[in-house]
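User: Good morning. I'm curious how LNDFFVEH would be positioned relative to this chain. Could you predict the structure with it bound?
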Amino acid sequence: MTGLLVVTAVPAEAEAVRAGLPDADMVVVPVGVGPAVAGAATARLLALAEAAGRPYQGVVSAGVAGGFAGAVAVGGTVLGTRSVAADLGAESPAGFIPVDELGMPPELLGGGVAIAADPDLLATLQSNLPEATVGAVLTVSTVTGTARSTEELRRRHPDAVAEAMEGYGVGVAAAHAGLPFVELRTVSNPIGPRDRDAWRMREALAALTTAAAALA
Ligand SMILES: O=C(O)c1cccc(C(=O)CC[C@H]2O[C@@H](n3cnc4c(=O)[nH]cnc43)[C@H](O)[C@@H]2O)c1
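Assistant: Good morning! Here's the predicted structure, ligand included:
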């Protein structure tokens, strides 16, 4: 695929992606952790490329993620059907209220509380990665670390297969630039009660290198 901008959170993820694309003419940039910094940095990269007369043709948010048990195993690969701002909203005694249910004008919500994957980009990656689990990827600003919040996320987003921290922000940047977007993740840890010993970062980075070949 030509003209894609691939953004990751951290340099180790960018290196893993590049290792799977030895000959590809693809730009891979670590843009930082969390939706705000990743979104802002991606928007700047897209604007600079456009101003230079060499606009990108699409944007991929790539990296490691937590996986929901039963949906995807550690070491597995995920393709996002949409990237959901899962913690953007308001708490209330009756529970969490998503931002799009707070009565704000829709134009203030950018692309809404979820950015859908581009159907063509997703279909191409799905055919290159038939073993990938396909579903919604949640974007959170805080890594989920209790059974209670895990169950709450599952209840609110039954189609979710994974969570990470950048997809929605990167997706908003792509949407503002009018570009196709997709999120590609490999699973480093199960989502649930915090257990740092259960993280398998090396395995997830190796899987990311394998999955990145699908972008070539
Ligand atoms: O909790 C820690 O001690 C810790 C130490 C190093 C890194 C982290 C991260 O949270 C890295 C987050 C990074 O990776 C993605 N990611 C991976 N697993 C998850 C998850 O279960 N929930 C949310 N994000 C996850 C995320 O996109 C960040 O870029 C933690």
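The two ends are 5 Å apart (CA to CA). Residues 35-51 form the longest helix (17 residues).
Let me know if you'd like a different ligand tried.
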